[in-house]
Amino acid sequence: MSELSGGRWSPFQRNPGKRVLPGFALSMGVSLLFISLILLLPVTGLIVQTAGMSWEQYWGVITDERVVASYKVTLWAAAIASLFNGIAGLLLAWVLVRYEFPGKRLIDALIDLPFALPTAVAGITLAALFAQNGWYGQLLTELGIKVAFTPLGIVVAMSFTSLPFVVRTVQPVLEDLPVEDEEAAVSMGASDLTVFRRILFPSLWPALMTGIALSFTRSLGEFGAVIFIAGNMPYVSEITSLMIFIRLQEFDYGAASAIASVVLIASLVLLLAINLWQARYLRRLHGR
């Protein structure tokens, strides 16, 4: 337990070995100000907009048949995109960490391209590539697969925009894993599958799950990249973000806020759950 010079303990006393950043009060104040202005204020605005609605109006808006159909499309598309990103992101992180090859830095930089590229540009580009006369679309059409302006296009757009979340979450964990453990297991006769399952996967699992959860929540709110390739057919390929946009175009701000609150609550619950699970898993993994 830390002690002040007067012999009295304070829970806010900083660690003498961690004085690179400003003091606790200043750091905490700036952090709370940032959270309040950037996160809590917009959320408060959302609550104020929905506060003017009665419960029956709110429930009627969020359970509207067309809106519920958009929930289903968004959820299953985000789930498939996140699972795909979990596999592809793990492989990409593995290749970037464990191998040296020409163009490695270029590929590493390209991973972050969806972060920098405007989502509308991404949507237009994907729609052009996967259209029936596009580069990819022509090949897929010969195989009987249509991507652009179908629900499959939603999955493609969500996968593109949320892939970096998995790669950038898993990559640092892989870099910290000692190669000696794998080499020791192989020298003792363990197969590649056993090394992955018994040595690598337990350490990667929390980061991988966090990356997939971030990818999923990012996909839930995706708009710009999806609407250009989805086709936006009611009950078929409309996503929840599009329903919010439609309500805003109708100047029905209360309904837009009500639908947005559903997405917000779902995302917050998922992120909180994955954080609690990750903390509990790491404590058990390290025997604490």
Question: Care to describe what's here?
Answer:
This protein has 288 residues and is an all-alpha fold. The model is unreliable at 1-9 (pLDDT under 50). Helix 9 (179-187) runs antiparallel to helix 10 and helix 12 runs antiparallel to helix 13 (253-285). It is built from 13 helices and no strands. The protein has helices at residues 24-51, 55-62, 65-98, 104-111, 113-116, 119-130, 135-142, 151-176, 179-187, 192-220, 224-230, 240-249, 253-285.
Features of this protein?
288 residues, mainly alpha, disordered N terminus
Shape: globular
Number of helices: 13
Share of residues in helices: over 70%
- What average pLDDT do the residues reach? 85
User: Using DSSP, what is the number of strands?
Assistant: 0
Q: How do the SSEs run, as a string of H and E?
A: HHHHHHHHHHHHH
Please outline the major beta sheet. Answer: none
Strand content is: under 5%
What oligomeric state best describes the polypeptide chains here? single chain
Sum this structure up briefly.
This protein is 75% helix and 0% strand. It has 288 residues and is mainly α.
Q: How is the secondary structure organized here?
A:
Blueprint: H1 24-51, H2 55-62, H3 65-98, H4 104-111, H5 113-116, H6 119-130, H7 135-142, H8 151-176, H9 179-187, H10 192-220, H11 224-230, H12 240-249, H13 253-285
